[in-house]
Design goal:
By secondary structure, this protein is an alpha+beta fold. It is about 40% helix and about 10% strand. The structure holds fe (ii) ion (FE2). The site of fe (ii) ion has 4 residues, from loops.
């Protein structure tokens, strides 16, 4: 669905602006490649290589102009397609971050993190079309409650200047990774049901689950997946150094409020200096979660190849969550439309396309926990991804009488793997008991989601 729209965007213009870092190595150009000033960089027939990309970036050519044919070829095959249209989003001025720390950021960043250990993906237990186990659900609920308290304790101490030890956070993430190995789909669905996502620690836990799932999908090892989770847990601690009203999702923001709000990643970095046993990479990536690949983020306006992969993962996850939460006058957007919105945004260059695709792989196009109506007229809950087709997940019929939620006590025929069924999803439903809205496709290029704007 999104791919069709992506191509129609590309075909509407003879040329497309693309982030240099997102050019696909190995592509052979059908037409010449120019810089944004119209200077010829490569002739038709040239092959894009890593060395050429590096040379362009060294010359500070961060964007190039491609023919639509070449851009379409890259979009259809590339792992990280990212054509940019200009002027969609107002650039934010970069805020000062100590030079020393900035140099440390630059020194620590590589454009890709290569995973040294075994991909955690290999450790995931396949669950086919099994129902959710109620004992596992109870254990998860209990884990969410206890870890919310322990993370909050560390955060409060650090914010108050007392210092803290990050090994508690690593243990928390290790516990969730073990649960994910047992049943990743169930963990992701349960994290969407956390009691109050308006509470920052609970929201950060949900973000950690989604971020780790993306890391797993990208083939990272357990250590790196755990670091992504820790990064999600701590990245917004700086918000607690600001007036309380700036943490309210429905508070109207003035321009001054927005300027103050944009300081929170730097305040997070200050707070994390007081915590021991926290990886420097986690600290630095935490301050980059609100950077965007096209340079329009904050606090520094860093572009793609200067943003750590952990932050490039957590940025879209944060955007997905913000879209699915009620914000400043608009209701929550249904998860399917929020994900479709991010997929539509890939050609605009704000996000790492490979990360959005991994989020799609982790949740399916009808994200885990979504409510749908099938072509047989019955309503169902998406409970598992399909190993075969991300557009046809495993669903479980909702009960027609009594509580909506399905149970593992329901007969097995209430669970359908749509990848193996004639049935299809006919309609996306709003979640029962929650105020949600569908998002018209015409708005999917223009939605903004960052804290105060969303
Ligand atoms: Fe934040």
């Amino acid at each position: 669905m999104s791919k069709l729209s992506t191509f129609s965007q590309v075909e509407a213009s003879p040329t497309v602006v693309v982030q240099t870092a997102n050019l696909r190595s190995g592509s052979k150009l059908q037409r010449p490649l120019y810089d944004s000033g119209g200077i010829l960089l490569l002739n038709a027939g040239s092959e894009i290589t890593d060395a050429i990309k590096t040379r362009l970036l060294e010359r500070q050519i961060e964007q190039v102009v491609l023919s639509r044919e070449d851009a379409a070829a890259m979009l259809s095959e590339a792992a990280t397609p990212s054509a940019s249209k200009t002027g969609r989003r107002k650039s934010r001025p970069a805020l000062p971050l100590g030079d020393q720390r900035h140099e440390a950021v630059a020194a620590s960043i590589s454009s890709l993190v290569r995973s040294a250990g075994m991909p955690l993906k290999n450790q995931m237990m396949p669950r086919g079309k099994e129902p959710y186990d109620r004992h596992f659900a109870q254990r998860l609920a209990s884990r969410f409650a206890t870890t919310t308290k322990s993370v909050e304790l560390v955060m409060r101490r650090v914010i108050q200047g007392a210092g803290g030890d990050a090994s508690v956070l690593a243990e928390v993430m290790g516990g969730y990774i073990r649960e994910m190995e047992q049943d990743l789909d169930h963990v992701l669905t349960s994290s969407g049901n956390l009691a109050d996502v308006k509470q920052l620690v609970q929201r950060s836990l949900r973000m950690a689950m989604l971020g780790m799932a993306v890391g797993i999908e990208l083939g990272l090892d357990g250590a790196k997946v755990g670091e992504i989770g820790t990064c999600a847990l701590v990245h917004d601690w700086g918000l607690y150094c600001l007036p309380e009203r700036l943490r309210r999702p429905n508070e109207p923001f003035s321009e001054d409020d927005w300027e103050m709000y944009m300081r929170h990643p730097s305040l997070t970095l200050d707070a994390l200096e007081r915590i021991s046993n926290l990886s420097p990479v986690v600290k630095l990536a935490s301050a980059q979660v609100h950077e965007m690949c096209d340079g329009s983020g904050y606090p520094r306006g860093l572009a793609y190849n200067r943003i750590h992969i952990y932050a490039r993962i957590l940025g879209p996850v944060d955007a997905f969550m913000s879209l699915t939460e009620a914000r400043r006058g608009r209701p929550a957007i249904v998860p399917h439309d929020a994900l479709a919105c991010l997929l539509h945004q890939i050609p605009l260059g704000r996000f790492d396309g490979a990360v959005i695709k991994a989020l799609l792989g982790a949740l399916s196009l009808f994200p885990l926990g979504s409510f749908v109506r099938l072509t047989d007229g019955q309503d169902a809950l998406v409970i598992r991804r399909s190993a075969k087709d991300y557009t046809r997940p495993v669903v479980q019929y909702l009960r027609l009488d009594g509580p909506h939620a399905p149970s593992d006590a329901d007969p097995p025929q209430t669970i359908i793997d749509l990848a193996e069924s004639q049935l299809e999803i006919a309609e996306v439903l709003l979640a029962p008991g929650k105020t949600e809205m569908r998002l018209d496709r015409s708005l999917m290029y223009d939605v903004v989601w960052d804290g105060p704007e969303a």
